Amino acid sequence: MEAKVKSPEQEARPNERVLRGLLWGVLALVIVGILGANLWSFVHQKSDTAPGPSPALSELATHGQLPDFSLTNQRGAPFALSDLQDKVWVADFIFTSCGTICPPMTIEMARLQDEFAAEDLHFVSFSVDPEQDTPEVLFRYADYYGADGNRWFFLTGQKDTIYQLAHEGFNLAAGHRGSEILHSTRFVLVDRNQQVRGYYDSRSKAHLQQLRQDMQTLLR
After folding, report:
1. Reduced to 3 states, what is the DSSP secondary structure of residue 120?
2. Contacts of 156 (CB under 8 A, 6+ apart)
3. What are phi and psi of 182, to 5 degrees?
4. What tens digit of pLDDT does each residue of 173-206 get?
């Protein structure tokens, strides 16, 4: 019998199959690596964006001691810094005829008041238009937004006194530009020793969430 002789093409086919197998194996390893890298990135991204634990009290920055003041609240009663002694409180600067940023600020403050109704937490809104914002006007404004008069105080007084308190005490903007009244959109967190512990943009959800965490830290 004659032995069958394989052609060069037939001899090359097993080598091609081995090569293809190696290529498919390498490709599979690459795909697994990419999937693993994407999974690692996703997990770490989730952990980076998740809210972290509340900072310790010592980790909250101190931005200065508030000076004493003597103003009048929405009930027409005198109100001084000493009325907030040993209280954690949140402050802002608004005026009742403001139709732009003040209503959203006051709505956010009302939400905080309701969320922390069971806590010994207080709120103070200083009017930057005290000539128009009399105690009677402030009382109606406070009532409209559901302010608890025992925990949320709307204060009026001499314009120079309030502007100086904003500038030098809270380190916030307050003033006039022509007929336009200017003031900050920030909330300010104050501790039991009347020290400013944080500033938070009232228009930022992230800042408001941080404010909530920091309030809980000070209330411990």
Report:
1. coil
2. 71, 72, 127, 130, 133, 134, 135, 138, 162
3. -110, 140
4. 888 887 889 899 999 999 999 999 999 999 999 9
